[in-house]
Specification:
The protein is an all-alpha fold and 293 residues long. Helix content is 75%, strand content 0%.
């Protein structure tokens, strides 16, 4: 009955979405640690699935550059669709908890604890998928085309300058958090999918950087490179020396650190705090209203 009433209301006003975001932050802050960690591992797995799908779709593509990137972005959207509709805890999305903190509903310590648990859980989930993909031999698909693309993606991400990676992280999480923000506007599954696909496709197609996705992309490249499979090197007529930049050090310090900083800024400041200031700061909570036709 409650969902039927909500459906009949139509789209929410932007200020109503801001209050929903605050409530979501309070709920996340009060979640039991074991539940938070479990759901964050699932989110890492879900985002990695999106990354696997995107890598496959764009491997050896004969389409134009733009269309190839677009198709990869649509495929990657699978990850956030699973997170939002299936229910999981994603670090980049949880930067929106800043709305609840800004309105003094939760503490800074609660946010940092949640971010730490979720970040580690996301990494565990992403790495788990990377190991299973390696063991499956999936990187040999398409006569090694998939493996070559895995290495190429990881190499490009490891070669970013620190400042560039920060900015790419900011731009990425602005779109990710906007996708989540828009998904609050509808309880229906098709509505949530539509809210997610366009922003996520945009960030992937534009080449922006997502910390949790990179927890899969780069370790996957490292594992394929370290595996030293002669069959793969023979298929792609290459050697590990040509992918010298792919390393754990470059993953952690040249990519993951700056991208994470950028993701926090993009989600917390440019989306969370911006909407909090516009719609929550010094405003009273109202009952949910529908937008004007």
């Amino acid at each position: 009955m409650e969902q039927a009433n909500r459906d009949s209301q139509g789209p929410l006003l932007p200020q109503d979405i801001a209050w929903i975001a605050e409530g979501a932050g309070v709920m996340k802050a009060g979640m039991r640690p074991e539940r938070t960690i479990t759901l964050s591992i699932l989110a890492g797995v879900f985002i990695a699935f999106g990354a696997v799908f995107s890598t496959l779709i764009t491997s050896g593509s004969g389409m134009s550059y733009g269309i190839t990137k677009l198709m990869g972005g649509i495929a990657f959207s699978l990850g956030l669709i699973l997170v939002v509709s299936g229910g999981a805890e994603l670090f980049t999305g949880n930067t929106l908890m800043i709305v609840a903190r800004a309105n003094k509903q939760i503490t800074t310590l609660q946010i940092l604890r949640n971010w730490l648990f979720v970040y580690l859980g996301n990494m565990i989930g992403a790495l788990l998928v990377a190991v299973m993909i390696l063991w499956s031999g999936h990187y040999l698909a398409g006569d090694g085309v998939v493996g070559a693309h895995i290495l190429d993606i990881a190499s490009r991400k490891c070669e970013l300058a620190f400042g560039q990676a920060v900015v790419l992280g900011i731009l990425c999480n602005m779109l990710v958090c906007l996708a989540i923000w828009l998904s609050y506007n509808t309880p229906s599954f098709p509505g949530k999918v539509l809210a997610i696909v366009f922003p996520i496709s945009a960030f992937v197609a534009a080449g922006f950087e997502h910390s949790v996705a990179n927890m899969y992309f780069i370790p996957m490249g490292i594992l394929v490179k370290s595996m030293g499979d002669p069959e793969l090197w023979g298929m792609i007529h290459s050697t590990a020396i040509q992918f010298e930049s792919i390393s754990w050090g470059n993953f952690l310090y040249a990519n993951l650190l700056p991208v994470t900083i950028g993701n926090i800024i993009g989600g917390s400041v440019f989306v969370g705090l911006a909407y909090w200031f516009a719609y929550v700061y010094k405003n009273k909570r109202n009952s949910l209203k529908t937008s004007m036709p």
